[in-house]
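COMPLEX REQUEST
Ligand: calcium ion
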Amino acid sequence: MRRRLPIRTLAHASRLGALGLLVLVVAVAVAVQPAGPLLAAGTLDQSQTNQAFGGTAIAPGQFEGQSFTAGLTGLLDQVNLAVFQQGTIGDLTVQIRTVDGGGLPTTTVLGSGTVPMASLPTPALPVALTSVPLTTPAAVVAGTQYAIVVFGDSVFDINGEISGTYPGGQAVVNFSGTWIPVFGVDLAFQTFVTQAVLSVGPGQVTEGDAGTTSLVIPVTLNFAVGAAVTAPYTLANGTATGGPACTGGVDFINAGGTVTVAANSTTGTISVPGCGDLDVEPDETLTVTLGAPTNAVLGTGSATGTILNDDAAPTATPTLTSTTPTLTSTASPTPTGTLVPTATPTLTPTATSTPVIAANQPPEDNQDKKPKKTEEQIRNEQHTNTGNRDDVHTEGHVVGVERAADGQSLLVTIALGPGGSERLVVQVPCLGGSCPDIQVGDELEADGYQNGVGDPNAYFVAADGITIWRNGHKMR
Ligand SMILES: [Ca+2]
Ligand SMILES: [Ca+2]
Ligand SMILES: [Ca+2]
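STATUS: Structure written out below.
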């Protein structure tokens, strides 16, 4: 809370239990101070306001002070003193210094501030406290002893208490370069410390599908202090459900704890174990609440932690998308590859030209493929000349000669069997385009191999060795 200096001074006077007249005097004294920066008032920390002892005159070049033990950690930004003027030249300077092992001020200055000598009250008993803002605040840590050191450009005096009622320190003087403790005496003084503010902020984490993920909740100080700041915290269900372990229905492990911001740092973290799952659900929330911190005051005390769901129900959109390319690629190759080989090679030779065999086509033994033999076939086999290299030998009376469609062979029909009633077509190759001279009426003996399976009229069709008889003469 920001308060204006006169009001604060009046408040201090009230704490002293001063008379109404004294309050008026203080207000007048403050009013003559030149305008200066108004600091945020710290919290009253150390206080010793008895003035029964009175004071001692301190000349320029001399020092007076009071050691004290900080009760709060933070920035000491104001000192109140029962100081009165014995001159009006220059400033009164107040410093905060470290102390040595004997509790005497060192030369290390942690913070300082000044007020004009002319602004100080004149001698009285008791003397109204004057607030001296420290334009350079001193970082202090609770439990550590420091010293207030005061010196001026004019003679001044600080009232105090001889009974030594302040246990955390004592008055000290330095008249000629050496600090001397004034045992049993304490100055009238007050110190004010602004504490750091500890706040907790929101955090979020992606849920995950199994195990735990750390939901990090940040805590921050508005300025670093010289001691660790700790605060207890608790977790509470929001839409997320806490439990002792990640079992079904548990979204986070609910275990409170203590968060720490290290000395001279401004950040710390709370890690909440979030439970991964595969449930399709909204994001889930929980609340983190800080308790009273040490070495700081509480600012924003609670925040929301969010576990971001990362599971989605199957929807129509992705299904359609993946189907489209699949169909496209399937359609094209299937008809192309399948139809071409199936239709062409198989049907053509079977239907059209079974009896026509090219001369250079390798002989094929069809015995194995041959279906059940007919009586005619059995008779034809009786003409077989198995002594030759060829499979079959046959002979008969030529009753027909024609050239094959491809011009590469003659198709010679012979009559055989009892009375010449059976017909057989013999395919005679025409080598080099020259066909043998075979005429109707010739007697033909042929060595060859069987063909024309399934076609009785072309049973014996190929010959690679022939003999032609015409009118009793061997023509070939
Ligand atoms: Ca998940
Ligand atoms: Ca969940
Ligand atoms: Ca989920």
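REMARKS: Confidence is low (pLDDT under 50) at residues 1-39, 318-359, 361-365, 384-390. The chain has three domains: 7-194, 197-308, 327-474.
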